[in-house]
Amino acid sequence: MSKQKSKPSPTATGLEPSRRNFLGLLAGFAAAAVAFFVPIYAGIRSVIFPLEQQGLGGKFYPLTTLDNLSQQPQKFPIVDDVVDAWVTVPKKTIGNVYLRLNEADEVQAFQTLCPHAGCTIGVQTEENPKTKTKELLFTCPCHVAHFDLNGQLLDAKPDAPRNMDTLVTKVEDGRVFVRFEVFAFGTPEKKSS
Ligand code: FES
Hints:
By secondary structure, this protein is of the alpha+beta class. About 20% of the residues lie in helices and about 30% in strands. It folds into two domains: about 15-50; about 60-180, Rieske [2Fe-2S] iron-sulphur domain (Rieske Iron-sulfur Protein, 3-layer Sandwich). It contains two helices and nine strands. It has a three-stranded antiparallel beta sheet with strand order 1-9-8, with no helix packed on it. A three-stranded antiparallel beta sheet has the order 2-3-4, with no helix packed on it.
């Protein structure tokens, strides 16, 4: 004669059904909350701190070789994979820098964004506001700021609050690297944004 197994009582697991249901609901709610809020938080951070979010702030990028540079400024794009809350965009241009050699043949790097309000600074022959001679200058078209080729502000009553933002460079085996950063706009001091 086979023995019939007795059914486990509702309390065999140590929890009443209503309590188990409540804990199950709670766990489900917590998982849904995490799934909902984490991407939103990541998205907001990526807008407020884009470089930090992408892990790009302060990173060195190889841009060219030393023998490719002269005193004439050249513009180079900074290209990197950009990670936002949902996707990775490969090889996106995240900014630009000017590179040149100064009078002592040292590498200089400048942000192309104007420290006033972030417009893109160009390079063209213009009248130097100080010397009144025509020469190659960095100029910002938005509020007509002029900088010499060392990034020094030339205007008597400038809108731009400081000189062009310089960037840290290094040269390894003839290759020129630039540490790309974006600085706060509209402040007299150069501050990381
Ligand atoms: S943004 Fe360049 S002078 Fe205003």
